[in-house]
Amino acid sequence: MTKKVVISIHDASIVFQKEIEIVMFSIPQKKSFLITPWWHGKRHLDEQFAKVMRSEDNLLHGLTHRSEYFDPYSILFMSKNISREFLHLDYESTKTKIALGVKLFQDKMGGSPRGFIPPMWHHNKHTMTVLKEMAFSYTETWSTFVD
Fold first, then answer.
1. Which of 52, 56, 109, 129 is the most exposed, having the fewest neighbouring CB atoms within 10 Å of its CB?
2. How far apart are CA 2 and CA 5, in angstroms?
């Protein structure tokens, strides 16, 4: 029986391109990159980033990796937005954000993401429904891989 290790790199975005390139060239095994297409609502994916990433297993990791909802626990992380981007969203907002993330991903990466993992694994009660409607193959929670 052959066992495989999945190397998963979170928060892949244009902001961390230099670090991602170091990982890509240092680790020969195929890696799984969780791509945030519009980092903090400021930095979009571009062609150079997409070119570097095309050979890997890429999945969608939210849209901006930020939340507009003030979370009192955020004080522990020194930020008013601690990346629970989807936790407090209603159905329409969840679907809109994921759809925009998919569109940006498709426009730059040249294909659709098969998987979706929200920032910090914080789903809301609508996420699974939206992911099924949008034909995603898998996701993860804090404790479970959902195929």
1. 129
2. 10
* Inter-CA distances, 73 with 64, 65, 77, 85, Å: 19, 16, 8, 14
Burial class (CB in 10 A: 0-12, 13-18, 19+), 133: exposed
pLDDT per residue as tens digits for the range 3-25? 777 788 999 999 999 999 898 88
Distance CA 97, CA 45 (A): 16
pTM of the model: 0.86
The per-residue pLDDT for range 126-143, each reduced to its tens digit, is 999 999 999 999 998 877
Q: What whole-number distance in Å separates Cα of residue 11 and Cα of residue 119?
A: 8
